[in-house]
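Need the bound structure for zinc ion, inputs here:
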Amino acid sequence: MSSPPPLVINDKDFNVLKKKSKDYYSLLLCKKAQFPNRSLTLKREFDLTGDQIQKVYILPHTVCCEPYIKAFQYKVLNSILYTNTKLYKIGFATDNTCSFCKSHPETLSHLFFDCIYSQSFWKEFQHYFHFISKELVSLTLKDVIIGIIDSNRPLLNYLLLIAKLYLWDCRRTNMQPEIIGLKHKVKTKFEIEKYVNVKNNTLDKFKRKWALNGNLLLNIYFSCRNHILLWFRN
Ligand SMILES: [Zn+2]
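Answer from helper R.:
Posting the output first, comments after.
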């Protein structure tokens, strides 16, 4: 029986007669763990190191557990959301203008940050975050697109993901973004997570996620209704 032709994978000889199933599995895994092509553009655009780009892709998995939010952020990072610029290019939209301001091309950076409506939304988001956490934040395009990777602010990063998804939902439903819409979304998330964690007897985990700077006081409800401060009493 003739030997199989030599195979070179990742610059190394891969002898199919000697390799075991775990070697094939490792090959599959190393392919899966490769960065998408878009990561090079992100690195260049936001001046990121190799370590930082790794954090960018890991961040959604550490701050949220909802698969659809992780998938959404993956699309943002890889620039595969169908903005009007993309839809126009492939003939699925009659023009490429922004769904909010109707005056600039709807690129990802315009829609999520540069648009006058998004700018006003993020300004209100900053006030909102300050209100619930007493922390000041001044968001940049980089913070909005990839998250804040070099600081330990899981709740802020989680809220940034929800806020971005909210902007996308507004675009999808032809609505102008308003901070009250996000506040209600956050409040709903908060209530659902509290309910699930109480049921699962994992309230400590819930408190760790939502308590800010060790404070057990949160103004999620207050921000919606301008009354009632919520104490974690359970
Ligand atoms: Zn716009």
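Comments: The pocket of zinc ion is lined by residues 98, 100-101, 104, 110, 115 (CB under 6 Å). Residues 226-234 have pLDDT under 50 and may be disordered.
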